[in-house]
Amino acid sequence: MKHSKTTLLLSALVLLAASFISCTNKNTSPKNIIFLIGDGMGVAHITAALTTGGSLNLERMPVGGLITTYSSNEYVTDSAAGGTALACGEKTNNGMVGMRPDTTAMESVLDVAESMNWATGLVATCKITHATPASFDANVPSRNNYNDIAKQMADTKAEVLFGGGIENFVPSRVPGSRRKDELDLLAKLAETHQVVTTAEGFNALATPLRAVALLDSGHIATSDKREISLSAMSTKALDILSQDKDGFFLMIEGSQIDWECHDNNSEGTIRETLDFDDAVGVIMDWAEQHPGTLVIVTADHETGGYSLLDGSVADKTITKTHYSTGNHSGVMVPILAYGPGAELFGGIHDNTHVGKTLKCLILE
Ligand SMILES: [Zn+2]
User: Fold this and answer.
1) Ligand 1 mean position, distance from CA 289 (Å)
2) How far is CA 269 from CA 157, 260, 280, 354, in A?
3) pLDDT at site 26
4) Cα 81 to ligand 1 centre (Å)
5) How large is the average pLDDT for residues 195-224?
6) Which of 126, 135, 217, 254 could bond 83 through an S-S bridge, CB–CB 3.0 to 4.6 Å?
7) Cα–Cα distance, 47 to 37 (Å, whole number)
8) Which residues place a Cβ less than 5 A from the ion ligand 1?
9) For 221-259, how does the pLDDT look when each residue is reduced to its tens digit (9 = 90+)?
């Protein structure tokens, strides 16, 4: 992102403050941070995936806790305020992305990582301009301003952007475009990044230093119909970002757990949670081979008020479920952690603790 004088001054103050505070009394600063967000993923979602899958990669993460999810103005958050709390370490109103309720811009953990010369990346199975990834790389008063978010992302400092959402990056003359202007943001991104927009293009990507892959006009297909899996996107992101010897920050979102819960579709909920867990496996394999890597898994909120009323561990089945809502709920969500600094995420915290602590660990 482009920085104004104010944000530069703010960065300097944050750096100054960080030299006086410590996230941890131990010398355990991570070299790399990988932050996985299962959108809408609560305890029941994980339990259902564990029952039907038999085991989960999430079980490889030794530290566990819970985080609250309420926003500045609502007990039940949306993904914009939830994502912003995780990305920036401050609460905001529902609908707002990377901005305080008074519309002043916040610095995200991605911004802080870039200020420390880390490589950074965002991977999602929704439009890359959607609320969760946008919370890390845009500042807008409304999450629905996809075209503004795309315009800001065309100036991204991030080395990797993988997701969907071509429709907000191409000029209005292109069929399917949702822009109202003639800005060609893919051409702009191509000045700084290798850009691909097809599965074939993605599979042919070597390991450039900077890459953008927008793999669908809108959101990417559900996990059972996806040409490029979340795990494959995660692997490619690791290959690219790990070339930076200063370290890297990578956010990976399993975006569609949330949508299946909005539809009260238990089968879909379990499918998307297991798909997300596959990506957790890719990340844990890498982290175990690369000491100094902190891995965090959490959710921005719970979706569906999902509960499991009957099933069988022996048969790996869930036979009776209930959704109390087609929206989000206000219950706390789990957080799991592995690697240096993991213990800072154990116990019960506010969701802002996550963004604050990640920033602090990068600056330390
Ligand atoms: Zn969400």
Assistant:
1) 31
2) 33, 5, 16, 25
3) 60
4) 9
5) 97
6) 135
7) 17
8) 39, 79, 258, 300
9) 999 999 999 999 999 999 999 999 999 999 999 999 999
